[in-house]
Amino acid sequence: MFERFTHATRQVVLDAVTEAEREQAPEVTPEHLLLALLNGTRSAPVLAEAGITRQALLEAFAATHRQAGLTDADTQALAELGIDVPAIVDTVERTHGPGALAAPRRRHYPMSHIPFAPTAKAVLSGALRQAKERRHRHIGDDHVLLALATTSGPAAQALAAHDLTYPDLRTRLAQAS
User: Fold this and answer.
1) pTM for this predicted structure
2) In the predicted model, is pLDDT for residue 163 greater than 70?
3) N or C: which end of the chain has fewer CB within 10 A?
4) What's the CATH number for 2-69+116-176?
């Protein structure tokens, strides 16, 4: 599959690894792929036009990670069952300190390899499907963005919060080409 990636898409994957290294994450996630798409890709102007900035993404992802990775939809579903996630997070953080529910940080080992999370692999496979559906020979960064919009989790939530749904992204990306 990687041989079908455009140069820009390969750079997105490399930049996602850099993002994961920067935050000492144990693996590369869809959030890292979305952050990498902000770096001069074909998708970057579409994201910027919608008001998505690196800082806004980092803040949104930090809020989600503080809740053990639960998205707003997860939190709302649990609230309907009578579970108050913010209250639980506050209680745990009072006892164990800020960020106690966040994913553990990775220790830095020289020349170590950061694996891709299954969710990030699914996004890259989804990008291949997006390219195939359009009968494109190569997988572009726009296909990665479309694949992100079809997933669930913090990256998709950040897109949806800026009204970037899958149909809207298809239209915007088509107009950008």
Assistant:
1) 0.83
2) yes
3) C
4) 1.10.1780.10
